[in-house]
Design goal:
Layout: E1 14-22, H1 26-36, H2 41-52, E2 58-59, E3 81-82, H3 85-104, E4 112-121, E5 125-130, E6 136-141, E7 144-152, H4 169-180
Antiparallel strand pairs: 1-7, 2-3, 4-7, 5-6
Helix pairs in contact: 2-3
């Protein structure tokens, strides 16, 4: 059995998916996964397809060093954004897998939303690049592990009518004085 960083509260109402040692940049993948958290599954896939076609962008909130600005990021309340195509393609594949897992469990896809994501750094891939004067430098790739959990939202419960608390004579007198002022 594969180990997840967290177990859902209701296992029967949720679906999981995971990939390890993905050959995509950790920082881009983290921001992409963060952008879809809380969205419904179909809406998240549609949003990522819009990113691939440059109709929307992935807002960068945490890893903002040397990230350019784009006008579309204003829609998300920040100024910095990118279109990380490789990370987006991998996450679309994962979300489609998550959707299939939810359907296999008998969950309603329309009510299922992404409630949890984790992106962790994996072991760096080590290659070498040749430098001047016979030296060799590292040529590293920053891989990552990703996991998603989607949960089907239950129907809303009606709110009970508000019951006015009983007041003592002293409290009632204070209220009357406060109203008269």
């Amino acid at each position: 059995m594969v180990k997840y960083s967290r177990q859902p509260a209701e296992n029967t109402k949720s679906a999981k998916t995971k990939v390890a040692d993905l050959r995509a940049h950790f920082k881009n993948t983290y921001e992409t996964a963060r952008a879809v958290k809380g969205l419904k599954l179909k809406r998240a896939i549609k949003y990522l397809e819009d990113v691939l076609e440059h109709r929307d962008c992935i807002p960068y909130r945490r890893f903002t060093g040397h990230v350019g600005r784009t006008t579309q990021a204003k829609l998300h309340g920040v100024t910095q954004g990118r279109f990380p195509e490789k990370s987006v393609r991998y996450i679309i594949q994962l979300l489609k897998n998550l959707q299939a897992n939810a359907e296999a469990k008998g969950l309603d896809i329309e009510k299922t939303s992404i409630t949890h994501f984790v992106v962790q750094r994996a072991v760096q891939g080590r290659r070498r690049t040749y430098r001047a004067h016979g030296r060799i430098g590292p040529y590293l790739s920053s891989n990552c592990h990703i996991e998603f959990i989607a949960t089907e939202k239950a129907e809303g419960v009606k709110r009970a009518e508000k019951v006015t608390p009983r007041l003592t004579k002293k409290q009632a007198a204070k209220q009357r004085l406060a109203i008269g002022k």
